[in-house]
Amino acid sequence: MALSTKSKQAFLGPLNKNNPILVQVLGICSALAVTSKLEPSLVMAIAVTIVTAFGNVIISLLRKTIPNRIRIIVQLVVVAALVTIVSEVLKAFAYDVNKQLSVFVGLIVTNCILMGRLEAFALGNGPWPSFLDGIGNGLGYGWILVVVGFFRELLGSGTLLGYKVIPQAFYDAGYENNGLMMLAPMALIIVGIIIWIHRWKNKDLQEETN
Amino acid sequence: MNRENSTYTIIYASVMVIIVAIGLAFTHQVLNEKQTANVNTDKMQQILRSLRVDASAAEADGIYRNLIKSAYLITPEGTKIDGTNGIEPTDPAFSGEHSDNQFPVYEAEVEGSKKYIIPMNGAGLWGPIWGYLSVEADGSKIYGSEFGHAGETPGLGAEIVLPEFRKQFIDKNLIKDNQFVSIAVVKPGQSVANRDYVDGISGGTITSKGVDAMLLKSVGEYKNFLLQLNAGK
């Protein structure tokens, strides 16, 4: 299926040069909170992608009817309803994951990426590009989460998805898990390092220095 | 139609809220049964883990019914309350629908010997923590333990759920010299006199203290029950 340039841009932009976390620095709060292990990072990435995609589609479909004065409230209600549904579905079909994510699923409502995309994109574009924009932003947010979660779990607990990957011999030789990795500041530092590498590869994103 | 008209705005908002409310109520109704079943299975798995049985969600129900022989409520004095017997999720011991001063006890039989399982509740750093202790027929010696938490720090306080922490409780004693002294959770490397103790979680001090307090208070509510078992051994 061929995508128009605009749709392609809506989908691919957020993965790289218009990344919500790396470039717009949105959604940092939840990126810090859920990334201490890889599994919740993955689930959070999927949940946010679903909510941004469908939130965008619904708002885009309604965009010609929404009264301007209450548009933020309408967006909030749509997002909150979607998040509640995701949370209910997780409770019914992925109970273990739901237990781990409990509060964070609810906090998707407050994720700035969602409101940002609804305001900036869905209100002015048709459902199909909005859907792609939502998927793109969800994945753009998600891949950062997964990278951060990967390093934090590997270095902080010596496991990945709960499986031990650092051999016992390392521990016997004096290697220790880095407890700091489990704390939120380390997530911020890892995000900082990713941003650094990203800017270094994309010179056009670098700010002018006088 | 003028979108900025107040009447339009009010009608729009009302209709939207009603639609969303119906949608959410419907979702909840449809999924409710499955969610309750999940909660019950999860509780069974926890009870089984305190008996050192790791059951998957699919097999938990069967193993639970096989191992747990009875469940009932007791008074603070340690006597069984009539009419509260039953291990079904709808029975009072399991459902948690009981008033203050009534405490649930589960009786299990593992490899021919009787174990008593006691639920515990307490507070960690960020939210509630809970657990189950399985005690040998003498009312003192721990057979196994299980802990859970709502939102302790991953990698720190949340480590109380790991087998490494839980295994430490095995063969520790709640009763010393006919006194209920519980089991202390101490900083790794420290010790306490006249009580059995286990190492807390490094970096999870407040959660460890929460477990310590829970062992003292929540298990303390079963003090008379356990002392009676201990006296009659």
- How many β strands of chain A by DSSP? 2
Mean pLDDT of chain B: 88
Q: Mean of the pLDDT scores of chain A?
A: 85
CA-atom Rg of chain B in angstroms: 22 Å
Percent range for β-strand residues of chain B: 15-25%
- Distance separating the two termini of chain B: 84 Å
Number of helical elements of chain B: 6
Main sheet: strand order of chain A? 1-2
Strand arrangement, largest sheet of chain B?
Answer: 1-2-3-4-5
Q: Secondary-structure element order of chain B, as H and E?
A: HHEHEEEEHEEEEHH
Give the domain tally of chain B: 1
Stretches of chain B where pLDDT is under 50 for at least 5 consecutive residues are: none
Description:
The complex is a heterodimer of chains A (210) and B (233). Chain A has a domain at 19-150. Helix content of chain A is 66%, strand content 2%. Chain A is built from 9 helices and 2 strands; from the N terminus they run H-H-H-H-H-H-H-E-E-H-H. Chain A has a two-stranded antiparallel ribbon. The longest helix of chain A is centred in the last third of the chain and has 31 residues, at 127-157. The mean pLDDT of chain A is 85. Chain B is α+β, with helices and mostly antiparallel strands and 233 residues long. Chain B has one domain (41-231). Helix content of chain B is 37%, strand content 24%. Chain B has 6 helices and 9 strands, in the order H-H-E-H-E-E-E-E-H-E-E-E-E-H-H. Chain B has helices spanning 6-50, 57-67, 92-95, 163-167, 205-217, 223-231, and strands spanning 68-74, 103-110, 113-123, 128-136, 142-149, 175-176, 179-180, 183-186, 196-199. In chain B, the strands form 3 sheets. In chain B, strands 1-2-3-4-5 form a 5-stranded antiparallel sheet. A two-stranded antiparallel ribbon of chain B has the order 6-7. In chain B, helix 1 (6-50) crosses helix 2 (57-67). Chain B starts with 5 loop residues before the first helix and ends with a helix. The mean pLDDT of chain B is 88. The A-B interface holds A 36-37, 40, 65-70, 73-74, 77-78, 81, 84-85, 88-89, 91-93, 95, 99, 102-103, 156-157, 179, 181-183 and B 3-5, 8-9, 12-13, 16-17, 20, 23-24, 27-28, 31, 34-35, 38-39, 41-42, 57, 150-151, 153-156, 202-203.
